[in-house]
Amino acid sequence: MGLVNGFNSFRLIQSCPHTKARAGELLTPHGVVQTPVFLPVASQGAIKTLTPEEVKAVGMSMVLANTYHLYLRPGIGVIDKLGGLHKFMGWDRALLTDSGGYQIFSLAPLRRVDDEGVNFRSHIDGSEHYITPELVIQFQETLGADIIMVLDECPAYGDSLEKVKEAMERTHRWAERCQKAQKRHAQALYAIVQGGIFPELRRQSAEYLTSLGFPGYAIGGLSLGEPKKVTLAMIEETVAQLPEDKPRYLMGVGSPEDIVEGVARGCDIFDSALPTRVARNGALFTWQGRRNIHNAVYSQLDEPIVPDCNCYTCRNFSAAYLHHLFNSGELLAYRLATIHNLSFISSLINKIRGAILNGTFPSFKDKFLGGYQPANEELRLSQKQKWLKSRFKP
Amino acid sequence: MGLVNGFNSFRLIQSCPHTKARAGELLTPHGVVQTPVFLPVASQGAIKTLTPEEVKAVGMSMVLANTYHLYLRPGIGVIDKLGGLHKFMGWDRALLTDSGGYQIFSLAPLRRVDDEGVNFRSHIDGSEHYITPELVIQFQETLGADIIMVLDECPAYGDSLEKVKEAMERTHRWAERCQKAQKRHAQALYAIVQGGIFPELRRQSAEYLTSLGFPGYAIGGLSLGEPKKVTLAMIEETVAQLPEDKPRYLMGVGSPEDIVEGVARGCDIFDSALPTRVARNGALFTWQGRRNIHNAVYSQLDEPIVPDCNCYTCRNFSAAYLHHLFNSGELLAYRLATIHNLSFISSLINKIRGAILNGTFPSFKDKFLGGYQPANEELRLSQKQKWLKSRFKP
């Protein structure tokens, strides 16, 4: 009773014998996507600062767009009139839209949820809106992405077990309604496992959604401020209950180290605004960790930020030039940093997949994590909480 | 006694028999530049939002960078260490640096000028600086552009004849000192005619500087808020006194209509931040005049802003998508608009040159100006004065 079809199936190619890492491919109406795969975020129909050509040139084969943002602006009807989201944004590779659940529960003020749907106000102009699982499917069918997502209720980190359980059970009922509402089966509809930081809820959610038979399963409600070891434990609990032959999508992750950890725990698909967002703040990925290009050590450095990096930025510009552009507030700075960070993630994903295919993933993982100094966790959490708080502001 | 040399000479190819328009070419150490030519402005070593590849792709063969900005940040010494300005900014075509005169007299607070040089404060951090004609040549020799400019004193629009005359005479003395200070003769040093809106001063200035023998002559101190017919009259007064066989550079111009008028009056080189600045405000050039992409008429328009335009933006995106990007504050908006406006100017310049070469410039000019609705002059002047005022603020 699953909704798998020839256009949107997953093929498992190789599994790591020592970890849960796997290499596979997604067949989509817009091409084959090799997994593991990372999706950069085009919230409003554009990867911030980049053209579609550049997104391809840095090696991305699928991007994510936010139904919530596009619904509010320019409106689903406008994109319909203009020929669908692929045409509107000039992107001809695979595309995933999220359902808007996460944005409604984090960005929109004054929301009221009941079993039928969610009432919320726009974070842009305060206008009132009401959406249901059925509407969310209709919106995503109009947008026309290759992979679409069920509407879920996403509790905040810190919510009680009772509250998280209630949200999970509603998410389950909504997943069924989304499944029934789907009319365009060339799109793959993925379910979203919820359950917060409660292992028994995570297991229940994964089992229940699996019983409904979806072509893919996402892990939602993580990376919301909880300690990293809790995140990883929840991924493990969830993946253990998901079918082997379906793709697993770890939503909202993330950083280079988190992608490696997620792959090791059996996740295939990742998305996050982090690489592009930190790029615009001047944080550039290197194999030793993030570097802050504002730092004076770069002011006269006549070599690229990552000397052996093959990206457009590193092939053409010195760290000193990037430093100057950031210091001067030149818009080109944000582009060059975005190109570098996405190229880095692309290169990381290629290394990961190569290691899985030739059986060396565990040693690759140890070597990478041994050399890569992650952002200090305390700092990371406080930044994340500050960022989440700013988004929750009405 | 002119400083012309084989690397930086000007060749006149064809003159219009009915106007003063001419087609020619500049031979520079970084390639042949066909004239008329428009230089986009890379104030801080980057054309705002664009990579060097994109600047080439829109058809630009020479760009301008500001010595004043680069002197303050990152510093001339840093660019020297990094191999010169061409290498620093990744630009391998022709390059012109201005002297900083205009910026010091418009941007920097608390300036004190005497015959020896100018004392001013940085508009960035208030630090004190002192420059002389000799220093300005030394800076520009270090930066290494193909064309460099003398230090000039640029009076404001509205200054008295006495004040403008004094500034002009100082500009003349400084031009001689710059000429004497020049050591690297692979760079062409252009003089700058001043004289404000006073015809007799314009004539005096052009005659005097011509007697010194420079490889090119700029017309400075215009487009500072005076009525357009005054600007055009001053160009005519000046050009009448300049030698035929040397290039004439109309500084700070400009808009499509002003370029056409400038060419008709014998100018060969133009530079202005206007096309890129108005692009970032959402004003896009069309053959009928500027269009404001924020306007609701574009919200669902499923065709490019200029349907037969061959630029990357028009070939790939609808006006509705651009409208959406501007409305959403997406950084990609500023890039796509910049690409369009520079492509438009490039296309205009090509049409102008073609018309001069095949003897149809007067009819081209009439047809273009007849179809192109310039920005309302009153509005234009009040915007310009507001902008100048904001720049003069300490």
What does this structure look like?
The structure is a homodimer of 394-residue chains. Chain A is 44% helix and 17% strand. Chain A has helices at residues 52-57, 67-72, 76-81, 85-89, 101-106, 133-143, 161-181, 199-212, 228-240, 256-264, 274-280, 312-316, 319-327, 331-357, 361-371, 377-392; strands spanning 10-15, 22-28, 31-35, 37-39, 62-66, 94-98, 112-113, 118-121, 128-131, 147-149, 188-193, 217-219, 248-250, 269-271, 283-286, 289-292. The first copy, chain A, has an eight-stranded parallel sheet. Chain A has a three-stranded antiparallel sheet with strand order 1-2-3. The first copy, chain A, has a three-stranded antiparallel sheet with strand order 7-8-9. In chain A, strand 15 and strand 16 form a beta hairpin. Chain A is globular and about 60 Å long. The relative contact order of chain A is 0.13. Chain A binds chain B through residues 44-46, 48-52, 69, 73-74, 78, 81-83, 88-90, 299-300, 302, 312, 316-318, 320-321, 323-325, 327-328, 330-332, 334-336, and chain B through 44-46, 48-52, 69, 73-74, 78, 81-83, 88-90, 299-300, 302, 312, 316-318, 320-321, 323-325, 327-328, 330-332, 334-336.
